[in-house]
Each structure stands twice: as structure tokens, then as C-alpha cells.
Amino acid sequence: MPIAYEPVLVTEFAQCLRAGFPSPAEDLGGRRIDILERIVIHPAATYALTIRGNSMLEYGIFDHDTVLVDRAIRPRHGHIVVANLDNEFTCKYLWKRNGTLKLKAGNETYPDIVPRDGQELLIWGIVLTSIKQFLI
Fold first, then answer.
1. If pLDDT is split at 50, 70 and 90, which confidence band does 114 have?
2. Edge-to-edge strand order for the sheet containing 66-70?
């Protein structure tokens, strides 16, 4: 089921947040923005899926993260995708060059997936973002 699109309003501060030395808080001024508008391109074709496993760590996608996946974007080399290979879903980096296609993990302990003749591969959608929850 696609995500239900209702605005999710949060306050965006005008100043960037430094990850190094702190900055004075009095410079912060904010405005309300719709956070989903910044992420979701095609609301009717966007789905939320929960990741299980550690094969995409190098791309910042971890076990139990939620990914937003857009089914309306045409997949191309370099996208992180949700693929269906022989009726099994996986999240991988799409490597496509000179007629060769691979699904690459973001963890060197996992092998590349190279579809063999007779296997059915469908690129189900493109990962837009990964959502992490730090407070559980």
C-alpha cells in the first residue's frame, strides 16, 4: 500500500547545524516545512519497507531502518534499488554497464548478485531515503 500523504510539518531552522564546534542558539530562526515534500517525489508510487540484515552498511542502510521506495522512477546505474529476484526481495546497489547487470551489496562479506539465464529479475523500485530511529 502506498504511503498516505498528509503533510508532516516540522520546524526548519535557518542556520545549519554544526557537527564540530557549537554555534550561538540565538541565531536560530525557523519556518514550518513539510518534511515529506522534501523526500517524496511520487506519493502514489512511494512505499515504506523495513530493512532486515546488514548487506547495505556502506550505503548507510542498517538492519531495522525504514526505506522509502519510489516505484515510478526509472532505475539506472548507481541507484540503490529494491529488486525481486525469483520472487525474493532484496535491497542492493544497481550496477549496470556494457550490458552487464549486478546487484552489489554495501558490505564486502556479501557477494554480488549476477542474475543467471532463466532467473527472473524485476527492479521493483528506487530507494529515496533511509530513516533511522535512534531513540527506541
1. very high
2. 46-50, 66-70, 121-131, 80-85, 88-97, 100-104
CA 47, CA 8: separation in Å to the nearest integer?
Answer: 16
Catalytic annotation, residues: 55, 92
Beta-bridge partners for 92: 81
Residues 48-69 pLDDT 10s: 999 999 999 999 999 999 999 9
The predicted model scores a pTM of: 0.80
Inform me whether the pLDDT recorded for 93 exceeds 60.
yes
DSSP calls for the chain: -PPP----EEEEESSPPPSSS---GGG--EEEEEHHHHH-S-GGGEEEEE--SSTTGGGT--TT-EEEEESSSPP-TT-EEEEEETTEEEEEEEEEETTEEEEE-SSTTS--B-PPTT--EEEEEEEEEEE-----
C-alpha span between 122 and 135 (Å, rounded):
35
Q: Where residue 17 falls among pLDDT bands split at 50, 70, 90?
A: low
